[in-house]
Amino acid sequence: MKIISFNVNGIRAIIKKDFIADMKRVNADIICLQETKASVEQVKESLVDLSEYQVYANEASRKGYSGTAILTKEKPLSVKYDIGVGEHDNEGRVICAEYTNFFLITVYVPNSGSELLRLDYRQTWDQSFLKFLKELEKTKPVIVCGDFNVAHKAIDLARPKQNYNKSAGYMQQEIDGMDTFINNGLVDSYRLTNSDEVKYTWWSYRGGAREKNVGWRIDYFLISELFTKNIKDSFILNDIYGSDHCPVGIEI
């Protein structure tokens, strides 16, 4: 089974590019999307040409903001939205699909913002989201994918010294949050299979960052430790454009 995750930075914008053709070429069994920036109905309308997939979408109460989706060829046993915490559940950031052997969660983690105005909120989010995942793990392993809005280690961004404790995505509080996920038995699948390979998943639109590969790895698959034996491969698809992110994926 191949699962990919892609922050599309607006589903209605990306389908005007090569998104449909790219997704048909990748031919994943499940596609998880973040930052759809659309209502549930708009997401489903946008994806009508990917008719081989069932589409489950979550939307923010604020129009054109955040949002997630799961496209799946195999019907899940159940699908749930959000994490059951009021302060976190109005931005459409989480969908959980239950399959026979695992829960698959797609997540768009809050960005601390250029002025770091949401840095404190981000820490509260991380704590609540981890609690949500650990509750699921009591039943079966979890596969968590999405835009976590943090580069975990210096290897995960092109300019660590210039950004450390200065830029959203590489603040110590955000790094601590990812450390807590890892220390609680969630494994970074890319580092599991690719060790110290340098590859990025997000590039600023400024200054030709993608052409120069001045990027960040902020999109992840985190896997329950018990399930890591099922991971055949973990990869980053740098050759797919259309967003400021590129897709990441696993084979199980």
Task: Please characterize this protein's 3D structure.
The protein has a 6-stranded mixed sheet with strand order 3-4-2-1-14-13. The protein is of the alpha+beta class and 252 residues long. The relative contact order is 0.16. The protein has one domain (2-251): Deoxyribonuclease I, Chain A (4-Layer Sandwich), CATH 3.60.10.10. The model has no long low-confidence stretch (mean pLDDT 97). It is built from 8 helices and 14 strands.
What does this entry show, briefly?
Helices cover about 25% and strands about 25% of the residues.
Radius of gyration: 17 Å
- Count of individual beta strands: 14
The CATH topology is: Deoxyribonuclease I, Chain A
Indicate the mean pLDDT.
97
Which shape, going by the Cα principal axes?
Answer: globular
> Runs with pLDDT <50, length 5+?
none
- Name the CATH homologous superfamily: Endonuclease/exonuclease/phosphatase
Count of spatially separate domains: 1
